[in-house]
Amino acid sequence: DESIRIMKSGETIHLRQGKPYARTIGDLDLRVTMDGNRWNVEHRHRVPGSAAGGFTTTRIHHHSPASSLEITPLMPDRPVVVDFENPVRIVTGHTVCFFVPIPLWVGLADKRDMDVILMDLPSVVLSNTWFGDHYSGILSYSLKTHPVVTPDGWTPSHNEALCPVEVRMESPEIFSFRKVCLFAQYLTVYRRDDIFWTNGVVVEYPGE
């Protein structure tokens, strides 16, 4: 088995019959084996401070399974409610820019048909939360983190993407917030200078 903790953009894995191919990405342990006319995908998530549990196996059947699969970074499939833990205050008429590190998902695709994701798994398991009121809210993921003021001093992570966020304050009063909801499922992830990025998000607050 080969195990690394780096996810490259569009990394190809080459499989041989019966030989597991292993990767550790974030908290995710991943093993893929080609077995006849199927791929066996085993995975588990490590919990810091706890003993590793057993693997869950998913069998993906195909009439002619490829010996090459693509590991591709994906954004979460639901909105992410970011909790900065400490309030952020913005003065009237000002704009603040910061970056939010969002844990990526890991996608597996047949090298012959990259548009079809055979399976996707989170590199880190985030807890669920409800954003909005009881009737019109939306099921989301909860993420506690600190905003990154500048990427220059940020250590690149193999399983996170930096999302540029711009908050425009147009209210006549000083605005204070601690949480922001990012619709991560609509963002695109790409890699530049060893850092995963997403397209930017603009939040405007006109006031009451």
Description:
This protein has 208 residues and is mostly beta strands. Helices cover 0% and strands 56% of the residues. The chain is built from no helices and 17 strands. Strand 2 and strand 3 form a beta hairpin. It is elongated, with a radius of gyration of 20 Å.
Cα distance spanning the termini: 58 Å
Computed CA radius of gyration, to the nearest angstrom: 20 Å
> SSE string, helix = H, strand = E?
EEEEEEEEEEEEEEEEE
Low-pLDDT segments:
1-6
Largest sheet, strands/sense/barrel? 5 strands, mixed
The number of helical segments is 0
Average pLDDT for all residues: 85
Percent in strands? over 45%
The portion of residues assigned to helices is under 10%
Shape: elongated
The number of strands is 17
- The secondary structure category is mainly beta
Kindly list the characteristics that best describe this protein.
5-stranded mixed β-sheet; disordered N terminus
Spell out the blueprint of helices and strands.
Elements: E1 11-14, E2 21-25, E3 28-35, E4 38-45, E5 56-61, E6 68-74, E7 80-90, E8 95-103, E9 105-110, E10 113-122, E11 127-131, E12 138-144, E13 160-169, E14 175-182, E15 189-192, E16 195-198, E17 201-205
Parallel strand pairs: 7-12, 13-16, 13-17
Antiparallel strand pairs: 1-6, 2-3, 3-4, 4-5, 6-9, 7-14, 8-13, 9-10, 11-12, 15-16
